[in-house]
Design brief:
This protein is α/β, with parallel strands linked by helices. 38% of the residues lie in helices and 22% in strands. The protein has a five-stranded parallel beta sheet, with helices on both faces.
Length: 127
């Protein structure tokens, strides 16, 4: 049996984090390893906890998204990043950089994290 997929949730709205946490925990093979309410907390949490996946809200407090994603890609190359947003139009302009294009981008919180689960499950095993 494979170990659970370890996820760090990063969203500045506690209710959104709670909803995503509940949806992920219902899958059975996913463990929420930590949570963050700012991009700085997300970066520190990823470096400390080394999750398999970071679920990151596109619009939240902290340093620029591209800075955080590039830093995490350099320091944790196996980390998969799922970027969530509820703002289709505003977010599109910020998704042209190569670092964000390498992430799974989910438009609309209503769709939740479920569309990204197949990608997450295909992740390489941790060594």
């Amino acid at each position: 049996m494979r170990p659970p997929i370890r996820v760090l949730l990063a969203d500045d709205h506690p209710a959104v984090r709670a909803g995503i946490r509940a949806a992920l925990m219902a899958e059975g093979d996913i463990e929420v390893a930590g949570e963050a309410s700012t991009r700085d907390e997300a970066r520190r949490g990823c470096l400390a906890l080394r999750p398999d996946v970071l679920v990151l809200d596109l619009n939240m407090p902290g340093p620029p998204l591209l800075e955080v994603v590039a830093d995490l890609r350099a320091r944790l190359p196996a980390l998969q990043i799922v970027v969530l947003t509820a703002h289709d139009g505003a977010a599109q302009a910020r998704t042209d950089a190569s670092e964000v294009r390498r992430c799974t981008l989910l438009w609309g919180i209503a769709d939740g994290v479920k569309p990204a689960l197949p990608m997450v499950r295909r992740r390489p095993s941790r060594s």
